[in-house]
Automatic annotation (TrEMBL):
Residues 186-224 form the Polysaccharide pyruvyl transferase domain. The lineage of its organism: Bacteria, Bacillati, Actinomycetota, Actinomycetes, Kitasatosporales. Residues 276-312 are annotated as: Disordered. This is Polysaccharide pyruvyl transferase family protein. Pfam families: PS_pyruv_trans. InterPro entries: Polysacch_pyruvyl_Trfase. One of its GO terms (molecular function) is transferase activity.
Length: 312
């Protein structure tokens, strides 16, 4: 029975799997499935360990080879022609840099996107639609040295990123640090808030990650990275926000629980908290009275007044 092996730059150990390449692959798979053409996909073990790889396959099992997307050049593609020399070899959705390059010349047919005739639309534009996934802002810090031996920041970051790796979401790492000179960072608070408004959920171990997410009505999964709790736990209490995990109790089960909650009832509560914050009060409202001109005879310092330090 005729069988096709589908390959691409995502098949090579030293290649790469881009979103466009994989979407183009999905388009080819969809076409082959609808045509009833049996096929397998070869993946780089660096991208999908345990999946079928080029070193695993027996070329004799295939009569057809399809190469999907990307430029046709380099020894890797030339090697495919050698190893699968008995197969009908077709490239689709590819760029032809040099028709005489062995990587390109070895194909029996090239359905190019550019470089060989009029350009055509990239295959990724026609890939079948799949369900959307949550867009998750990720805000973690390795700072806060002031907490000394109570710091759990490294463990928190390792646990969160390891868990996210197996979670269906689109992660968006960001930072609350502003920089008017660096075009890759927000330069104003409004720019950062505009980013936050477009997220579905935020996972953070920073106080302002929690506060600013709730300010714009986005649910947050908060982790207190300080043993025995510190300002994150205190702020979650002040905001009446339940999704806060003590760093010493952080694990994938708790992350999964609050993640599901944040994307369900937590989303509604976050919107309510945004309204509460817009209408609420804070200690700054006491400043005018405290800073009012002192009455005749001198003023007494306010209780608790004194020098303060900023904890980054």
């Amino acid at each position: 029975m005729e069988r096709t092996l589908v390959t691409g730059w995502f098949s090579f150990v030293h290649g790469e799997a881009t979103a466009g390449d994989v979407l183009a692959l999905h388009r080819v798979q969809d076409v082959l499935d609808r045509a009833g053409r049996p096929h397998d996909v070869a993946w780089s073990p660096g991208f999908r360990p345990g999946a079928l790889s080029l070193t695993d396959v027996d070329p004799a099992d295939y009569t057809r080879l399809v190469f999907v997307c990307g430029p046709l050049h380099g020894p890797g593609i030339a090697w495919l022609h050698e190893r699968f020399g008995h197969c009908l070899r077709v490239a689709v959705g590819t760029s032809v840099l040099d028709p005489e390059d062995p990587a390109a010349a070895g194909f029996h047919r090239i359905l190019a996107r550019d470089g060989a005739g009029p350009p055509t639309e990239d295959l990724a534009a026609h890939a079948p639609a799949r369900p959307a996934v949550p867009v998750a802002g990720l805000l973690l810090t390795d700072g806060q040295r002031e907490y000394g031996a109570r710091r759990l920041h490294g463990r928190v970051a390792e646990t969160v990123t390891g868990w996210l790796n197996g979670t269906r979401c689109a992660p968006v790492p960001f930072d609350t640090r502003l920089d008017a000179r660096d075009g890759t960072l927000p330069g104003t608070p409004e720019e950062l808030l505009s980013l936050l408004e477009r997220l579905d959920v935020v996972v953070t171990d920073r106080l302002h990650g929690l506060v600013l997410a709730l300010r714009v009505g986005v649910p947050a999964v908060a982790i207190d990275p300080v043993s025995a709790g510190a300002k994150m736990t205190a702020q979650a209490r002040a905001l009446r926000w339940p999704a806060v995990i003590p760093g010493e109790r952080l694990d994938e089960e708790r992350l999964g629980h609050w993640w599901a909650w944040a994307l369900g009832p937590g989303a509604r509560l976050a919107r309510k908290r945004a309204g509460d914050l817009a209408a609420g009060h804070d200690p700054a409202e006491s400043l005018p009275d405290i800073l009012a001109p002192a009455p005749a005879g001198g003023a007494q310092p306010a209780a608790g007044a004194g020098p303060s330090t900023r904890s980054r």
